[in-house]
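Side project, low priority. Logging it here so it doesn't get lost.
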Amino acid sequence: MKNVLLLTALLVVLSAAATTPPEVNEKVIKAFNETFSEAENVKWQEKENCYQADFKMSEITVRAIYADDGSLLQTVRYYTEKNLPSNVLAKVKTKYENKQVFGITEIVNDNEVSFHIVLKDEKHWYWIKSDPYGNMEQTQKLKRGDPAEKTAF
């Protein structure tokens, strides 16, 4: 019985230690709060030489990566076509008509903004990379392997 209690206590301590958020320095917290004052459900992770914050803002999932000095290194936003800039969306809809926008990943760092757009049709998945001006390239095309519908016998 003592072993069970000791094991239980050890598991509680280990799980509490595993869920303890990292100590984020004041410069990073200050910069984050100034930039993302509307952030909800913020979860921090300490990475090698940087901090990563994952959170929601206006229904958009966001990842922000900060250097130790509080400078913002990169943001990654995940959203649907309604948040894609209209000029890029118009070019996607023209060039890839009859394809449905499945999801978008926007990556912003010091010298680049890029949109990674996943499209689908009846048979394929398409990965498109676009810049803010709508210059696009297809980076991948895969055959869909969705599960077949069940039929009754």
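Brief comment: The CA atoms of residues 49 and 131 lie 28 Å apart.
Revisit when time allows.
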